[in-house]
Amino acid sequence: MPVIILIAGISFYSCNQQPVKEAKAAEPVKSEENYILEGKYLTGLAGCHDCHTPKVFPEGVMALDESRLLSGAPAGAPLPSIDLKALEPGNWVLMSGDLTTAIGPWGMTFAQNLTPHETGIKGWTEEVFIKSMRTGKHMGVDQGRPIMPPMPWINLANAKEEDLKAIYKYLMSLPPVDNKVPDPKSPDEVRAMAEGA
Ligand code: HEC
After folding, report:
1. Would you call the peptide bond into 150 cis, given omega within 30 degrees of 0 as the criterion?
2. Do the beta carbons of residue 179 and residue 119 sit within 8 Å?
């Protein structure tokens, strides 16, 4: 009686199916302090200090300048002598000694001041910050200028909303640093600077 055996088998199988439980528990509400701690952790992990924090060199070893964390390329800091070969694609990227300024085929760019000062991101809402990271447009403005290399916004474009929120809250909790970072320079402007030097 192969047919009966088969039917019995099916009904045995289906009786053993557990009803799928809705496993979604409500997300616990994160405190402001926990967001900030999380943001500090993520900012460290994502390497934002590499370019956005000026460096010091105690005993010749590179360290972050804790007195001006994430305050961007220091305004007026001396630039390395410009080698125009860095403007040609396929060569190398030239960086200032503290890695806050870079020259490449895109021109010269200065890591932004990410502290909550007028010269930094004080006026930025959380929405502006998240949109700029997601779209790669300056301040998240749809038709705005692209955010230039080497800012790795593309690494953050698909980050979880919660993570970007945490990074924003951490940045807003930093001591404000007065540092008006220069605007990016086009390759022609860099050539003119090099010739004028
Ligand atoms: C490799 C260097 C580098 C790293 C690493 C880096 N940045 Fe940047 N960032 C830059 C540079 C350079 C600019 C300025 C680009 C410009 O002027 O278009 C910038 C600009 C920005 C801006 C301004 C965006 C806008 O709308 O104009 C924000 C916000 C920012 N970075 C946040 C971060 C955060 C958060 C991290 C860590 C997750 C990070 N950056 C990591 C180099 C870097």
Report:
1. yes
2. yes
User: Do residues 167 and 43 touch, judged by C-beta distance below 8 A?
Assistant: yes
Residues with C-beta less than 6 Å from any ligand 1 atom: 43, 46-48, 50-52, 102, 109, 111-112, 114, 132, 138-139, 147-148, 150-152, 156, 167, 184
Which residues, at least 6 apart from 167, have a Cβ–Cβ distance to it below 8 Å? 39, 42, 43, 46, 48, 129
Each residue's pLDDT tens digit, 67-100: 999 999 999 998 878 999 999 999 999 999 899 9
- Contact between 112 and 102 under an 8 Å Cβ cutoff? The reply is no
With beta carbons less than 8 A apart as the criterion, state whether 91 and 171 touch.
no
Q: What is the amino acid identity at position 6?
A: L
Query: How many CB atoms sit inside 10 A of residue 175's CB?
Result: 12
57-69 pLDDT tens trace: 999 999 999 999 9
Distance from the alpha carbon of residue 22 to the mean position of ligand 1, in angstroms: 40
